[in-house]
TrEMBL record:
The keyword Zinc does not apply. The chain crosses the membrane at residues 40-65, 77-110, 122-148. It comes from Papaver somniferum (Opium poppy). This is CASP-like protein. Its main location: membrane. It is a multi-pass membrane protein. The lineage of its organism: Eukaryota, Viridiplantae, Streptophyta, Embryophyta, Tracheophyta. Homodimer and heterodimers. Keywords: Cell membrane, Membrane, Transmembrane, Transmembrane helix. One of its GO terms (cellular component) is plasma membrane.
Length: 150
């Protein structure tokens, strides 16, 4: 396998994972600090999806940090395949949850004009979820690129 930025065990990969984790955790914090978020199923789905994203990104960030400390690049085909599949699954769940939540916010708060005092937090949460999805998709593309180049 070739060695390029974003390869598991590099500083770029660790940075992507930390950003994924941070954006997903920020999304959860923004939405859970609002009373009544549980009334909307799409927002609950967003929390569940971002929770999975937090766990996945944190776990892979630990792998990357350990590889950086021991100065190893993780080019194991099975490991890269696992990372690619995990990134793809969590990426699709994150995109679905963020899109569903954005659709809900547009319908209820913009079209129907039912914006409460917490609608800014909802929008911030969805924005952070989309930013987390962008980071996971970058990681996913790098993993598929590694598999194709390998």
């Amino acid at each position: 396998m070739k060695d390029f930025p974003g390869t598991p065990g590099t500083f770029t990969a660790l940075t992507l994972r930390v950003l994924q984790f941070s954006f997903a955790a920020g999304s959860i914090v923004c939405i859970t600090t609002t009373p009544g978020f549980f009334e909307y199923t799409a927002l609950c789905y967003l929390i569940a999806s971002m929770g999975l994203q937090v766990i996945w990104s944190f776990g892979i960030a630990l792998f990357d940090a350990k590889a950086l400390i021991t100065k190893k690049i993780l080019h194991n085909l099975v490991l890269v395949s696992l990372f690619a599949i995990g990134d793809w699954v969590t990426g699709m769940l994150s995109l679905a949850a963020a899109s569903a939540s954005a659709g809900l916010l547009i319908l209820y708060f913009r079209d129907l004009g039912k914006c409460q005092s917490d609608c800014l937090k909802y929008w911030m949460s969805v924005t952070l979820a989309f930013m987390s999805w962008v980071m996971i998709e970058i990681s996913s593309l790098i993993m598929f690129w590694l598999l194709a180049a390998g």
